[in-house]
Design goal:
elongated; mainly alpha; about 90% helix; Metal_Tscrpt_repr_sf; DNA-binding; 3 helices; DNA binding; Methane Monooxygenase Hydroxylase, Chain G, domain 1; about 90 residues
Length: about 90
């Protein structure tokens, strides 16, 4: 679990650097297409972070709910559905 946390933090640090880089590109009046290419890379990196957090959630939180029984399972299932709906919107 500690390793998952560190991997997530490492990716977020890289993502932070990418966002700063995009801001610098805008400040320098760089070519719009180049900026858009970088924003696409930022979106992709953010999705990778989301996947890591979701995998961690499934591995730990959902696994615990499975062991706890039907009420906890239903609650985690509803959380996942709500999360997926937000991701689609």
């Amino acid at each position: 679990m500690k390793q998952d946390k560190q991997r997530t933090l490492d990716r977020l640090s890289r993502l932070e650097g990418q966002v700063r880089g995009v801001a610098r590109m805008v400040e320098e009046d760089r070519y719009c297409v180049d900026i858009l290419a970088q924003t696409a890379a930022v979106r992709s990196a953010l999705k990778a972070v989301e996947r890591l957090v979701l995998e961690n959630h499934a591995r730990h939180c959902v696994e615990e709910a499975i062991a706890e029984g039907p009420d906890a399972q239903r609650k985690k299932f509803n959380e996942l559905i709500a999360l997926l709906q937000k991701a689609q919107g």
